[in-house]
Design goal:
Layout (H helix, E strand, L loop, with lengths): L7 H28 L1 E4 L2 H9 L3 E7 L4 E6 L6 E6 L6 H8 L2 E2 L9 H30 L14 E3 L1 H4 L10 H15 L1 H7 L6 E5 L6 H12 L3 E5 L10 H16 L2 E6 L2 H4 L11 H16 L6 E7 L7 H4 L6 E4 L5 H12 L10 H7 L5 H17 L7 H13 L10 H19 L7 E5 L10 E4 L10 H22 L7 H16 L13 E3 L8 E3 L3 H28 L1 H14 L1 E3 H9 L9
Parallel strand pairs: 1-4, 2-5, 7-10, 7-11, 8-9, 9-10
Antiparallel strand pairs: 2-3, 3-4, 6-8, 12-13, 12-16, 14-15
This protein binds adenosine-5'-diphosphate, magnesium ion and zinc ion.
Zinc ion binds next to helix 17.
């Protein structure tokens, strides 16, 4: 963060100082300039001095009704005044003493001091204030000194300053490998020059938020031990047209001076957006900045060892010109971590906290499929916080598992008041999910079932954790998953003959899954392998838009409807066949509130109990 002071305070100080200067001037120096040294004496003293011939010149000041005179033995600076008396002989006395009549006391300031006070001084004061203001403004607009508008404020890092190395980045082995090559080039350029290999000028790190792109760039800086210029794309975006471009120019000038070095532009989509003529006149400032960036990237000689890294999670919005060979010609995907990656990330972050021995990171990693590095880091921190909250010295496995749930579903709502009947419905709903999952081949084993409400609004949930990592999902697995999602509602219907709002999230997920299966995975007879939807922004929202005709769209809706209905029927069938187990498990869950997958399976596989239920 820049250190921006409250601008109003200094401004007032400057004004106060200026006022003080003026006041001092008025009170002391000005009168001194004008009045020299004036001494008031009595008329008799005047007469005595006149008689003694000690007066050189006299001036009669009618308006002020006084006489000013200069003594002959002192310097001209010293002026005496005395009151004018009604003295008819004064003229003859003066003549007799032989003093000259004339101007003695300066009634008006001299031309020089007048010039000084009315013209030069105010100008000086205003120039000084103006300078101070200008300097302050320049500082606030991001420049360093006065008159440095548009200078880049890229921070210069040296090796030790980021304090990060590749060891801090867990997983992401492919990205690390690609970046290692760049680091190596900066260390031994000759090795590459011998063969005639040319280093890519720029590398673009792309991936979802929180996967460690910024971290990787910092690690490269740490590993490369060359100067590392880091700037965020948004810092180029300025209020005035042309300033961003000036910043880019300055950044590259600095980089060229420091070569070999690395320039890192984070969140480059802020300036690298596609230039198009959409909208009124476009965005001039951004376009100019981008153009300048393109020019600079062409302009410098890659063999000199300036490597440009950039990161973004919206690669699809970037201007094509930015991605062409010779600019960001290497694209390094930084994807969400896989199972091994998640485990490694957990270990890296667990190293920083005190833990109990033999924590099972693998189990936690399996439960966090789809989580980013940042989320995993957050989970470890939540676990540590929980350990502190419960007054323990080290993080336990339970802390970690609870932290996972906290990050996924929010904190437990201990004080939530839920009526007995509603708790019952929730219990049956969750057991419904678990039972449908367990009774189908191809679904992940149940890991945990809970009916403790969460701050996210969930009243309970069933956690399924896969045994290993599967990268592919078969049609059967998807259908099983949809059926599992409908299992909660199916249980409500079977047991209570009603429907509750508790299934809203299940419905959303099931519909999305069914739709994806049809429109993007080509898993239906009807539409074969035709893409009916495309993803809009790969890494962020996951929004899609239909790319088929409206008629086909309507048919897709029908197909989605059929898939869901089919799954729902299947779930209802499974629950009807296993009503006994449903009752048994729901009663157990109601009692315990949270049960593990093992407990669940144990009860499920227990031989049918005696009919003791009411
Ligand atoms: P982004 O990809 O959005 O730039 P960051 O690099 O800012 O993500 O990552 C945010 C935080 O997440 C990091 O500071 C780090 O604590 C954690 N993190 C993300 N990925 C990893 C990883 N692969 N290894 C270790 N920590 C990671
Ligand atoms: Mg980032
Ligand atoms: Zn549900």
């Amino acid at each position: 963060m820049k250190d921006v002071k409250n601008p109003r305070k200094p401004l007032i100080y400057y004004y106060l100082i200026a006022m003080l200067v003026i006041m001092v001037f008025n009170a002391m120096i000005y009168p001194m300039l004008i009045n020299r040294n004036v001494e008031n004496v009595e008329y008799s003293t005047f007469l005595t001095m006149l008689a003694d011939g000690r007066i050189k010149a006299v001036e009669v000041q009618d308006q002020e009704n006084s006489i000013a005179f200069l003594p002959s033995d002192e310097e001209d600076k010293h002026v005496y005044t005395t009151v004018m008396m009604d003295d008819p002989q004064l003229t003859s006395r003066l003549e007799k003493a032989g003093v000259s009549f004339g101007r003695v006391a300066p009634r008006e300031p001299s031309f020089l001091s007048q010039l000084l006070t009315t013209w030069i001084l105010p100008i000086v004061i205003f120039v000084v204030i103006g300078q101070l203001l200008g300097r302050m403004l320049a500082k606030r607009m991001g420049g360093g000194n006065a008159m440095s508008f548009g200078k880049s404020n890229a921070k210069v890092y040296v090796a030790a300053q980021t304090g990060k190395s590749f060891a801090d980045v867990a997983g992401q082995d492919e990205a690390k490998e690609a970046l290692t090559e760049i680091v190596d080039f900066l260390h031994n350029p000759e090795k590459y020059a011998q063969i005639g290999a040319r280093l890519p000028k720029g590398a673009l790190l792309v991936g979802p938020p929180g996967t460690g792109k910024t971290l990787l760039a910092q690690a490269v800086a740490g590993e490369a031990s060359v100067p590392f210029f880091s700037i965020s794309g948004s810092e180029f975006v300025e209020m005035f047209v042309g300033m961003g471009a000036a910043r880019v120019r300055d950044l590259f000038k600095q980089a060229a001076e420091k070569a070999p070095c690395i320039v890192f532009i984070d969140e480059i989509d802020a300036i690298g957006k596609k230039r198009d003529s959409a909208g009124l006149g476009g965005n001039d400032e951004r376009e100019q900045t981008l153009n300048q960036l393109l020019t600079e990237m062409d302009g410098f000689d890659g063999s000199r060892g300036v490597v440009i890294l950039a990161a973004t999670n919206r690669p699809e919005t970037l201007d094509k010109a930015l991605l062409r060979p010779g600019r960001f010609d290497r694209r390094i995907p930084v994807e969400l971590p896989d199972l091994a990656g998640r485990e490694a990330i957990l270990r890296v972050h667990l190293q920083k906290v005190r833990t109990e021995e033999n924590l099972d990171c693998n189990a936690v990693a399996r439960a966090t499929s789809g989580a980013s590095g940042a989320e995993l880091a957050n989970m470890v921190n939540e676990a540590a916080l929980r350990a502190v909250r419960t007054g323990r010295q080290a993080v336990s496995q339970q802390d970690l598992e609870e932290a996972v749930e906290t990050v996924i579903a929010g904190y437990q709502r201990k004080g939530a008041v839920i009526s007995r009947r509603e708790k019952e419905i929730v219990a049956y709903h969750e057991i419904g999910h678990a039972l449908v999952a367990a009774k189908q081949s191809g679904s992940d084993p149940v890991h945990k079932i809970t009916i403790v409400p969460r701050t996210s609004g969930a009243l309970g949930y069933t956690m399924q954790v896969s045994e290993g990592e599967n990268v592919l999902m078969s049609r059967e697995e998807i259908l099983a998953k949809i059926a599992t999602l409908t299992g909660g509602r199916a249980a409500e219907e079977t047991i209570f003959g009603t429907m509750t709002s508790g299934a809203s999230n299940d419905i959303e997920q099931a519909t999305k899954l069914a739709r994806t299966m049809i429109t993007r995975l080509g898993m239906t007879e009807e539409f074969d392998m035709v893409a009916l939807e495309t993803e809009n922004s790969g890494y962020l929202s996951g929004d899609t838009s239909l790319i088929c005709s409206a008629e086909t769209g309507a048919k897709v809706d029908e197909a989605v409807f059929r898939v869901i209905r089919e799954a729902h029927r299947k779930a209802l069938g499974i629950l009807r066949e296993n009503t006994g187990k449903l009752h048994e498990l729901a009663a157990y869950l109601l009692e315990k509130e949270t049960i593990t997958g093992e407990e669940f399976m144990e009860i499920l596989n227990r031989p049918a109990p005696d009919k003791t239920e009411g």
